[in-house]
Every structure is written in C-alpha cells, then in structure tokens.
C-alpha cells in the first residue's frame, strides 16, 4: 500500500515516516508533500492508495485537496484527515466527502494504526469492486463484438456460427430479445448534427440509462442501433428505452422509434431483425415504442383523411388561424395507430392537404405557396416519412406564409423602432423589448430590420448608443460615468469596455482627441 502524507509542518513531514511501524501496518511506501500544489502533482503522477492530510495549510485546505482529488483523480483514494482542529464543521465536511477517519493531533499510535488498517480494508474493497467492474465491461465488449461479427458476416447457422460462439464463449442455445432503435426525424433546429455524431450521442444516452443492465449494443453510426437483451433481463427494457426517447426529444429535438422483436434462438436472429427493419421502413407514427405484436402488423389499413377533418383544416387555413390549425393537426395525427399510418399513406395525405390549401389561395399567393413547398422539401425531402416531419413541415410552412404577408409591412414600422430606441437610450435595450413595443416576434423583426437597414437590431442599438455618447463627450462637460448612465450603462467599467470595443478608444481618450 502506498501512502501520501501531506502537512505544511516540515518537522512532522520529516519525523512522522520514521515514528511509526508503517511496514507492520501494511504500508510499503510513504510519499510526502508540504503543500497542496506538491500533493496534487504526486496524485496526478502516481497511484496513491491512502491519503493522510492536514486540514489547515497556507495555500489551501485539506478539504479542498480532497474535493479536487474526487474530481480529477480517476482511481479511488482512501482519505484520512489529521489536524489540530476539533470544530464540528470540519468533521462534518470530511464525512460528507467520504473520508475514512478524522484524527486529532497528536495522534496516538494505536489510534493511527486502527485508522490505517481500516483504510487498507477499504482499499482492498475498492480494488475488488474495480476488478469486478472491469470484468463486467470486458463481458459487455465481448457480447458487443459477438453481435457485430454475426451482423457483419450474416452468420446465423452452421459451422461458422459454432466457431463464432466458441470464440466469444457464447452458448449456441442462447435466447435473446432484439430491439431496433432508430432516429426517425431530425428537427431543422439541429440538422447540422451529422448521423455519425447523433449515433454516438444516442449510444451514450442508452448506455447511461441502461447502466448495470446486461445487453449487447451494435452501432453502425447511421442513426440505427441494435440492442440484444438476454431472454430474462433483470429489468424490462421498455421503460428505460422510453426514457431514452423522451431525453433525445427534449434535448436534441429528434423523434426516436424503438421496435421490440420476439425472443429468439441465435438461428432466428436474421429473420427477426429483418422484420424490425421493415417495420421501421413502414411506420410513420413516431416517436414511439412498438411491441412485437405491433411490429407484426403486415396488413396496413388504407388511410384517408376524413372529410370532417379535411373541412376543419381547410377552414382554419382560410381564416389564417395557423396556430390553432397546427394544434388540430397534432391532435389528429399523433393519435393514429401505427397500422393506420404508413409512410406511403402519409405522403399522400400531405399532397392532398397541400392541394386543398393551395385551392383556397389567390393566384399570386399560390405561386408563393409553391415556392415555399419547393424550398422546404429541398431542405428536407423526408418530411413526408414521419408524423413529426409532417408537423414540422406545416409549422414552417405556416411561418413562411405569415412572413410573406408581413413583407409588405409599411416602412413606418422601421421608423417606429428607430424612434423607440432614440427615446429609450438610457435603458438597457434588447431586441425582445423593442419587438414587444411594435407587436412582432424578435426574430422576425430582426430579419426585416436588417433587410431594410443593412444591420441587425442589436448592432443598430449599439451604434446609436455610441453615437449619442460621442456627441455628449464632445459637446458637454458631463462626467464619463454620467454619460454612460445616459446611454443605459450604470456600471462605469461596462460602459468604458463597450465604448472602447466600438471605437478603439476609451471615452476619456476619445473626448481628449476630439476636443482639440
């Protein structure tokens, strides 16, 4: 066992290694440090089993060293605190950090011996758990490699299967549960994440949520992952995979589908996996988790948008109630059963709805509608393959139509914005506040403002503030801090930094240069 002794008292550092029978207690090597910095260097470079550390030191406390160690040192270290402080808060914090013991100076030999022996027991336990963890990880890697080999070479029977089973120490009579996990739809908000990166993210989320479970995972980095669970998993994977789906939707705005197969022998894996692939190719209702019975639906019901829904959608479109229309679409399409909505029928439904909407438009509006269609499908040709794709398509479609209608907005809007900025220069103006004043969405206002003026709203506000500040610096005797307040900067240093970033000079330097 290797022990690190840390104390800023060099007398203790020099005397303590020879004052106790460390070897009799199982300590084979003692390293010493008289500062936190020196201790960190040793901990980074060597594997230490036990840390015996003082609390109060000039360049940091022992508590701080332990907190750092728990973040930065990968191998677990058993910690003991040796100090002349008996205050309860020290002991309490030490216990919170998982310290093995808290000893007061000067420590009695028997007391120190007991603490060291207890710490050694913990080290042995840590090592045992680490060995078990590595063994388990190796088993997981072996099963991953086993299934990767079967899938890569299409091995499902005969001598080849027997050899692969022997190589990876897998029983040929193995029974397993296959699950196919796919990213069905990307939101336009994160479409710049490539499939390889998305697959990597998805694998890490699955491994985190399924931590401790037995399964194999095959990732081909094409946003399609295979999971193979044992016949009797310790936990039903349905709920954990539902968590994965919810997490990916919330954090990466993508729709995930999970297809459960039936429990099979190894010889049936290829046929079962092909069935799951076919389900993924046909099912359009997503995100979803599909059971083996749902996957086995081979006779899809013909889908036709009911006349009552068609009339409802058409009426809301004509009235320009796009928010309500989109909600009605969500309610209807997300309630469909998988067998009611395959990719072919969904594509047909979109085409028919677009025709109905276009029929309600005037001639010039029809042309703009078609241009929006072309642009959206150019950005993402897969909009018609999933319900989330359909809903995103119409969400963006309606947003573009509304924007088109606002393009003829009178120039007075821009003038109102400029007037509002000039009248509220002393405030910390933001584009959300300005947009609220004229009753527009901040993103939309920013687009039309930049189109008309050549600069963004944020840049215009900054330029206006600088221009006003320059005029006040040159034409008045107000203090720099007072001028900063007049253009919305209560903090002197913030105003100085802002002004220098825009002009290259501090306010004082600018005043001096322009008053000559």
Question: How does this model look, in words?
Answer:
InterPro entries: CheY-like_superfamily, Homeodomain-like_sf, HTH_AraC, HTH_AraC-typ_CS, Sig_transdc_resp-reg_receiver. Residues 2-120 form the Response regulatory domain. It comes from Eisenbergiella tayi. The modification 4-aspartylphosphate is found at residue 54. The protein is flat and about 100 Å long. The chain has 4 domains: 2-127, Response regulator (Rossmann fold, 3-Layer(aba) Sandwich); 173-295, 2-Layer Sandwich (Alpha-Beta Plaits); 307-403; 412-514, Homeodomain-like (Arc Repressor Mutant, subunit A, Orthogonal Bundle), CATH 1.10.10. Strands 6, 7, 8, 9, 10 and 11 form a 6-stranded mixed beta sheet that branches. It has a 5-stranded parallel beta sheet with strand order 2-1-3-4-5, with helices on both faces. The protein has helices at residues 10-19, 36-45, 62-72, 88-96, 109-153, 158-167, 195-209, 238-252, 269-282, 292-295, 307-318, 322-333, 343-359, 363-379, 387-406, 412-423, 431-438, 442-453, 457-475, 480-486, 492-503, 507-514; strands at 2-6, 29-33, 50-53, 78-83, 101-104, 175-186, 216-219, 224-230, 254-260, 264-265, 288-290. The longest helix has 45 residues, at 109-153. The protein has 516 residues and is of the alpha/beta class. The mean pLDDT is 85.
